[in-house]
Amino acid sequence: MANKQTSVSFTWADARWLFLKLCITLFLVTVVWVITYRWIDPPVTLHMLSKRSEPSPKNQKIEEIQYKFVELEDMSVQLPLAVIAAEDQLFLTHNGFDFNAIKQAFQRNMSSKKTVGGSTISQQVAKNVFLWHGRSYIRKAVEMYFTFLIEVLWGKERIMEVYLNIAEMGDHVFGVHAASRKYFKCEPQQVGRQQAALLAAVLPNPIRYSVAKPSGYTLRRRRNIARNMSRLGGSEYVQKWLN
Q1: Which residues does the chain have with pLDDT short of 50?
Q2: Domain 65-242 in CATH: superfamily?
Q3: What is the pTM of this model?
Protein backbone atom coordinates (compact mmCIF):
# COMPACT_ATOMS: atom_id res chain seq x y z
CA MET A 1 0.00 0.00 0.00
CA ALA A 2 1.49 3.29 -1.05
CA ASN A 3 2.33 5.79 1.63
CA LYS A 4 0.19 8.86 1.47
CA GLN A 5 2.07 12.12 1.36
CA THR A 6 0.85 14.63 3.89
CA SER A 7 0.96 18.26 2.86
CA VAL A 8 1.85 20.92 5.35
CA SER A 9 -0.01 24.16 4.92
CA PHE A 10 1.07 27.39 6.60
CA THR A 11 -1.92 29.65 7.07
CA TRP A 12 -2.28 33.28 8.10
CA ALA A 13 -3.52 32.02 11.45
CA ASP A 14 -0.24 30.16 11.91
CA ALA A 15 1.70 33.28 10.95
CA ARG A 16 -0.22 35.41 13.43
CA TRP A 17 0.33 32.86 16.20
CA LEU A 18 4.05 32.68 15.42
CA PHE A 19 4.28 36.48 15.43
CA LEU A 20 2.42 36.63 18.74
CA LYS A 21 4.79 34.08 20.32
CA LEU A 22 7.78 36.05 19.03
CA CYS A 23 6.41 39.29 20.53
CA ILE A 24 5.73 37.62 23.88
CA THR A 25 9.23 36.13 23.93
CA LEU A 26 10.86 39.48 23.11
CA PHE A 27 8.74 41.20 25.75
CA LEU A 28 9.72 38.71 28.44
CA VAL A 29 13.41 38.84 27.49
CA THR A 30 13.50 42.65 27.61
CA VAL A 31 11.60 42.79 30.90
CA VAL A 32 14.01 40.31 32.50
CA TRP A 33 16.95 42.31 31.08
CA VAL A 34 15.64 45.56 32.55
CA ILE A 35 14.79 43.98 35.91
CA THR A 36 18.28 42.47 36.07
CA TYR A 37 19.85 45.92 35.67
CA ARG A 38 17.53 47.24 38.37
CA TRP A 39 19.57 45.23 40.88
CA ILE A 40 22.83 44.49 39.06
CA ASP A 41 25.05 47.33 37.85
CA PRO A 42 25.75 47.26 34.09
CA PRO A 43 29.30 45.92 33.62
CA VAL A 44 29.40 47.67 30.25
CA THR A 45 26.96 49.32 27.85
CA LEU A 46 26.50 48.88 24.11
CA HIS A 47 27.67 52.47 23.66
CA MET A 48 30.90 51.69 25.53
CA LEU A 49 31.46 48.63 23.37
CA SER A 50 31.12 50.73 20.22
CA LYS A 51 33.55 53.30 21.63
CA ARG A 52 36.02 50.58 22.60
CA SER A 53 36.53 49.71 18.93
CA GLU A 54 36.96 53.34 17.84
CA PRO A 55 40.35 55.10 17.82
CA SER A 56 40.69 58.27 19.83
CA PRO A 57 40.30 61.38 17.63
CA LYS A 58 43.29 62.89 19.43
CA ASN A 59 45.93 60.26 18.72
CA GLN A 60 44.12 57.73 16.48
CA LYS A 61 44.90 54.95 18.96
CA ILE A 62 42.50 52.52 20.57
CA GLU A 63 42.12 53.61 24.20
CA GLU A 64 40.78 51.70 27.17
CA ILE A 65 37.37 52.62 28.49
CA GLN A 66 37.54 54.42 31.85
CA TYR A 67 34.50 53.31 33.82
CA LYS A 68 33.63 52.28 37.36
CA PHE A 69 30.11 52.08 38.76
CA VAL A 70 29.45 53.86 42.06
CA GLU A 71 26.23 54.11 44.03
CA LEU A 72 24.25 57.34 44.17
CA GLU A 73 24.83 57.64 47.92
CA ASP A 74 28.58 57.77 47.21
CA MET A 75 28.21 60.83 44.98
CA SER A 76 28.00 64.49 45.80
CA VAL A 77 24.41 65.77 45.64
CA GLN A 78 25.74 68.44 43.29
CA LEU A 79 26.11 65.84 40.52
CA PRO A 80 22.45 64.82 40.08
CA LEU A 81 21.45 68.44 40.63
CA ALA A 82 23.78 69.62 37.86
CA VAL A 83 22.60 67.13 35.24
CA ILE A 84 18.95 67.85 36.04
CA ALA A 85 19.64 71.58 35.69
CA ALA A 86 21.48 71.02 32.42
CA GLU A 87 19.68 68.18 30.70
CA ASP A 88 16.20 67.62 32.07
CA GLN A 89 14.64 70.01 34.57
CA LEU A 90 11.35 68.09 34.53
CA PHE A 91 13.08 64.79 35.34
CA LEU A 92 11.34 64.30 38.69
CA THR A 93 7.85 65.02 37.35
CA HIS A 94 7.63 63.54 33.84
CA ASN A 95 6.96 59.89 33.00
CA GLY A 96 10.08 59.53 30.88
CA PHE A 97 9.14 61.89 28.06
CA ASP A 98 9.10 65.67 27.78
CA PHE A 99 6.72 66.10 24.86
CA ASN A 100 7.14 69.88 24.71
CA ALA A 101 10.92 69.47 24.36
CA ILE A 102 10.42 66.77 21.72
CA LYS A 103 8.07 69.04 19.77
CA GLN A 104 10.47 71.99 19.95
CA ALA A 105 13.40 69.81 18.89
CA PHE A 106 11.40 68.48 15.93
CA GLN A 107 10.49 72.00 14.84
CA ARG A 108 14.12 73.17 15.06
CA ASN A 109 15.30 70.11 13.15
CA MET A 110 12.79 70.80 10.38
CA SER A 111 13.92 74.42 10.02
CA SER A 112 17.66 73.79 10.40
CA LYS A 113 20.30 71.43 9.06
CA LYS A 114 21.60 70.88 12.60
CA THR A 115 20.02 68.01 14.52
CA VAL A 116 18.81 69.01 17.98
CA GLY A 117 17.90 66.37 20.54
CA GLY A 118 14.89 66.46 22.84
CA SER A 119 15.71 63.39 24.92
CA THR A 120 15.09 63.21 28.64
CA ILE A 121 17.58 61.65 31.04
CA SER A 122 15.42 58.51 31.04
CA GLN A 123 15.57 58.29 27.25
CA GLN A 124 19.33 58.77 27.27
CA VAL A 125 19.72 55.91 29.75
CA ALA A 126 17.48 53.66 27.65
CA LYS A 127 19.35 54.23 24.41
CA ASN A 128 22.87 54.15 25.88
CA VAL A 129 22.36 51.03 28.00
CA PHE A 130 20.10 48.88 25.84
CA LEU A 131 20.36 50.03 22.21
CA TRP A 132 22.76 49.83 19.31
CA HIS A 133 24.48 52.92 17.93
CA GLY A 134 22.71 54.73 15.10
CA ARG A 135 19.70 56.80 14.12
CA SER A 136 16.44 55.45 12.72
CA TYR A 137 12.71 55.54 13.43
CA ILE A 138 12.85 51.89 14.49
CA ARG A 139 15.60 52.64 17.00
CA LYS A 140 13.61 55.61 18.33
CA ALA A 141 10.55 53.40 18.82
CA VAL A 142 12.61 50.79 20.69
CA GLU A 143 14.13 53.60 22.77
CA MET A 144 10.65 54.75 23.80
CA TYR A 145 9.75 51.17 24.74
CA PHE A 146 12.81 50.77 26.98
CA THR A 147 12.21 54.23 28.45
CA PHE A 148 8.74 53.13 29.50
CA LEU A 149 10.15 49.94 31.03
CA ILE A 150 12.83 51.63 33.13
CA GLU A 151 10.38 54.29 34.33
CA VAL A 152 8.04 51.54 35.54
CA LEU A 153 10.58 48.97 36.75
CA TRP A 154 13.46 51.14 38.00
CA GLY A 155 12.14 54.43 39.28
CA LYS A 156 13.82 57.83 39.21
CA GLU A 157 16.57 57.14 41.74
CA ARG A 158 17.94 54.12 39.87
CA ILE A 159 17.62 55.91 36.51
CA MET A 160 19.67 58.82 37.83
CA GLU A 161 22.24 56.49 39.40
CA VAL A 162 22.76 54.62 36.13
CA TYR A 163 22.83 57.84 34.10
CA LEU A 164 25.58 59.38 36.22
CA ASN A 165 27.61 56.21 35.81
CA ILE A 166 27.24 55.61 32.07
CA ALA A 167 27.15 59.17 30.67
CA GLU A 168 30.17 59.95 28.50
CA MET A 169 32.07 62.88 30.01
CA GLY A 170 35.19 62.82 27.86
CA ASP A 171 36.92 60.74 25.23
CA HIS A 172 36.54 57.13 26.49
CA VAL A 173 35.64 58.54 29.94
CA PHE A 174 32.30 57.25 31.27
CA GLY A 175 30.58 58.18 34.50
CA VAL A 176 31.29 60.49 37.39
CA HIS A 177 33.85 58.22 39.04
CA ALA A 178 36.20 58.20 36.06
CA ALA A 179 35.54 61.88 35.32
CA SER A 180 36.08 63.17 38.86
CA ARG A 181 39.27 61.15 39.25
CA LYS A 182 40.63 62.19 35.85
CA TYR A 183 39.73 65.88 35.84
CA PHE A 184 39.52 66.88 39.51
CA LYS A 185 41.72 64.28 41.25
CA CYS A 186 38.98 63.55 43.76
CA GLU A 187 36.23 61.07 44.54
CA PRO A 188 32.66 61.60 43.25
CA GLN A 189 31.52 62.38 46.80
CA GLN A 190 33.92 65.35 46.92
CA VAL A 191 32.83 67.05 43.69
CA GLY A 192 31.77 70.66 44.25
CA ARG A 193 29.07 72.79 42.68
CA GLN A 194 31.20 74.40 39.97
CA GLN A 195 32.90 71.11 39.14
CA ALA A 196 29.55 69.34 38.78
CA ALA A 197 28.27 72.15 36.57
CA LEU A 198 31.36 71.83 34.37
CA LEU A 199 30.85 68.08 33.93
CA ALA A 200 27.22 68.70 32.99
CA ALA A 201 28.27 71.43 30.57
CA VAL A 202 30.07 68.99 28.26
CA LEU A 203 27.32 66.35 28.19
CA PRO A 204 25.80 67.38 24.85
CA ASN A 205 29.08 66.54 23.11
CA PRO A 206 31.91 65.36 25.42
CA ILE A 207 34.26 64.87 22.47
CA ARG A 208 33.86 68.40 21.14
CA TYR A 209 33.70 70.10 24.54
CA SER A 210 36.42 69.47 27.12
CA VAL A 211 36.40 69.49 30.90
CA ALA A 212 40.20 69.66 31.02
CA LYS A 213 40.41 72.62 28.61
CA PRO A 214 37.00 74.29 28.64
CA SER A 215 36.23 76.73 25.86
CA GLY A 216 34.47 80.04 26.38
CA TYR A 217 31.20 78.42 25.35
CA THR A 218 31.67 75.62 27.89
CA LEU A 219 32.42 78.10 30.69
CA ARG A 220 29.33 80.16 29.81
CA ARG A 221 27.26 77.01 29.80
CA ARG A 222 28.71 76.08 33.21
CA ARG A 223 27.64 79.46 34.62
CA ASN A 224 24.12 79.00 33.25
CA ILE A 225 23.89 75.52 34.73
CA ALA A 226 25.12 76.75 38.12
CA ARG A 227 22.40 79.45 38.08
CA ASN A 228 19.77 76.86 37.20
CA MET A 229 21.00 74.68 40.06
CA SER A 230 20.30 77.55 42.45
CA ARG A 231 16.90 78.24 40.88
CA LEU A 232 15.87 74.64 41.37
CA GLY A 233 16.60 74.97 45.09
CA GLY A 234 20.21 73.88 45.39
CA SER A 235 21.29 70.70 47.14
CA GLU A 236 18.06 70.62 49.19
CA TYR A 237 16.15 69.96 45.95
CA VAL A 238 17.97 66.64 45.53
CA GLN A 239 18.16 65.76 49.24
CA LYS A 240 14.36 66.03 49.62
CA TRP A 241 13.93 63.76 46.61
CA LEU A 242 16.41 61.16 47.88
CA ASN A 243 14.97 61.21 51.38
Answers
A1: 1
A2: Biosynthetic peptidoglycan transglycosylase-like (1.10.3810.10)
A3: 0.86
